[in-house]
Write a structure and sequence with these properties.
This protein is an alpha/beta fold and 353 residues long. The chain has ten helices and 15 strands. It has a nine-stranded mixed sheet with strand order 14-13-12-11-7-10-9-8-15. The protein has a six-stranded parallel sheet with strand order 3-2-1-4-5-6, with helices on both faces. Helix 1 crosses helix 9 and helix 4 runs parallel beside helix 5. It binds nicotinamide-adenine-dinucleotide. Nicotinamide-adenine-dinucleotide (NAD) binds next to loops.
């Protein structure tokens, strides 16, 4: 069987996870790489044996050999690149967030419809084995009705700088970068209920704290501490139809004692924790049980998650599976993220029809 030819657009940090996972998938050939930075694209082409290198994504789109693309560029460029790929008959895996405005999200959805191609949003945590374990318990009604969910992703010092902290290219700070993962995975496990209202707050109190010494943190390749136009903390209460609610807080920097990640769900018959450690909580014979599944990793396994996401995407391109993170979910998540920013800006709760 002929191999699917893949093009990767954006050859920065996260592209490495895409390249490694494609390299492990026997059904594909890494064929083309595009980056504004030609040297970066050439390095990856050499490492992964790609035969074509592009600087302009429009030229890559005109290459009829390419069946599918991964989009790993700055957030605000995702929509235009995805639409161009779909209109050129290519399947698309686009990194999270789908885009930075509801208007652009709907344009991508329209392009998916008119092209008949697949678009998978890179909600990688949906593909993690631990998420699927909890999903099975929920599907079998073992947690009952989920009525509350809670997500925390706190970095005490971790504004990555570069495009991440330039709102023009990122669309926002920790909410759109980190919040998108934890809100999405909870919303997915809750059964994707319709959003009724959102009350959110954002704060830009601490900046990027470039003054801090003796404590290292993740920095973008093009780290520039002098440009920071994004929030450093966001929180929100999201209400859903049917009465369930989701509480979230995320930060790039905060006077917190340590970094923290928590992703938790509570139902009428039981609860589940995805982070900081996989756990199922229930009650039997009048006794509360905390169950620890015996699995390879009790926390998110980055390598497994990406491999499962890429393998699923390829099977979707081949018509063997439906994507688990379709464009419609990307549109809903964009509504939620933009709704939090809008509520914070207006200083009041906002309502959806
Ligand atoms: N799923 C995850 O866990 C995860 C983790 C990190 C980043 N991401 C997402 O991946 C995307 C990229 O993040 P990153 O950390 O790799 O950033 P990065 O800065 O390391 O890399 C981005 C690359 O895209 C290139 N680029 C930007 N616009 C381009 C264009 N129009 N055409 C061609 N190349 C272009 C840049 O030159 C750069 O090399 C972001 O959307 C981010 O939210 C996802």
């Amino acid at each position: 069987m002929a191999k699917l030819k893949i093009g990767v657009i954006g050859a920065g940090s996260i592209s490495e996870a895409h390249f490694q996972s494609y390299a492990n998938n026997k059904k594909v050939e890494i064929y083309a790489i595009c980056d504004l930075n030609e040297e970066r694209a050439k390095e990856k082409a050499e490492k992964y044996g790609a035969s074509k290198v592009y600087v302009d994504y429009n030229e890559l789109m005109n290459d009829p050999e390419i069946d599918a693309v991964s989009i790993c560029t700055w957030n605000t460029s995702h929509a235009e690149i995805a639409i161009a790929a779909l209109d050129h008959g290519k399947n698309v895996l686009v990194e999270k967030p789908l885009t930075t405005s509801v208007e652009k999200a709907l344009q991508v959805e329209e392009a998916v419809k008119r092209s008949g191609k697949t678009l998978q949003v890179g909600f990688v945590r949906r593909y993690a084995s631990n998420t699927q374990i909890i999903k099975q318990f929920i599907d079998q009604k073992e947690l009952g009705e989920i009525y509350y969910a809670k997500a925390t992703c706190i970095r005490r010092l971790g504004n990555p700088g570069g495009w991440f902290s330039d709102k023009e290219r990122s669309g926002g700070g920790p909410l759109i970068d980190l919040g998108v993962h934890v809100i999405d995975v909870l919303w997915y496990l809750m059964g994707r209920p319709k959003v009724k209202s959102i009350s959110g707050n954002t704060y830009s109190q601490l900046g990027n704290r470039k003054n801090i010494k003796n404590l290292s943190f993740y920095q973008a390749a093009d780290y520039d501490p002098d440009k920071n136009t994004v929030e450093d903390l966001a929180n929100a209460m999201i209400r859903f139809e049917g009465g369930a609610s989701l509480l979230v807080d995320v930060s790039f920097t905060l006077h917190a004692k340590k970094d923290e990640i928590a992703v938790k769900l509570y139902g009428t018959k039981g609860g589940a924790e995805l982070e900081p450690e996989l756990s199922i909580i229930t009650e039997k014979h009048d006794t509360i049980l905390n169950i620890t599944p015996q699995v390879d990793s009790l926390t998110f396994d980055f390598v497994q998650g990406f491999q499962a996401e890429i393998d699923h995407f390829i099977d979707t391109c081949l018509g063997e599976k439906e994507t688990r993170s379709p464009v419609q979910d990307g549109v809903e998540m964009t509504k939620i993220l933009c709704g939090i920013y809008e509520s914070a800006e207006k200083g009041k709760e906002i309502y959806f029809d």
